[in-house]
Amino acid sequence: MAGDWxxxxxxxxxxPEVWAIAERLDVDxxxxxxxxxxxxxxxxxxxxxxxxxxxxxxxxxxxxCVSGFCDAVIDAxxxxxxxxxxxxxxxxxxxxxxxKTRATTAKRVAAHKSKxxxxxxxxxxxxxxxxxxxxxxxxxKRREEKNKExxxxxxxxxxxxxxxxxxxxxxxxxxxxxxxxxELGVSLVTEFxxxxxxxxxxxxxxxxxxxxxxxxxxxxxxxxxxxxRQAAAGQKETPRERAIRMAAxxxxxxxxQ
Length: 257
What we know:
mainly alpha; 2 domains; two-stranded antiparallel ribbon
């Protein structure tokens, strides 16, 4: 048994794959998250590498009390099936002894550094002689802290780092955006107004709006390709293609877990 806990992203309920699974099964997205947690926990407790050669989809469906759940997860890209064996892709990124060791080590190192900082501060405070100048007056210390907060951080390349801001009213696609759209066959005449309407309505903030525009263009291209395949084959939209479309509509990258 690998352990009694697993890594779980707090943004899981916002992922397009969760929406696609919920839509296919006609269940609440929050219920999908809970059932995914049960499946991932089962793999974590009963497998070492995320492979379950002796377990069937039917048994896991019974485990979460939803018929067809595993098929929906497979279509969304969060579970795979090959030669009758089901497994979780990228298992070692979130589950297993290796992932837990990394997470535990990082937490222990952070706690140790915090303790060191606190210990040094207390030691220096007690070691100062009476003739040594004391700490800054509270008023001056607060003023220095306020000035530090108002000073933008310096980027590694030098200069001031960008801060996230809402979409400027005069924002327009730059040459990089236009070149990418031309290469991918995406119409900026159609996509740019949708990009602006979406982020203005949502109140989004970005550090680099032109990079966000590139992401929108790539998602639009990916959705267009999946849509063309459906039209040519006369098939219904799959949960994975639905996830790609939803990601494009929200201007976020499609990143299978």
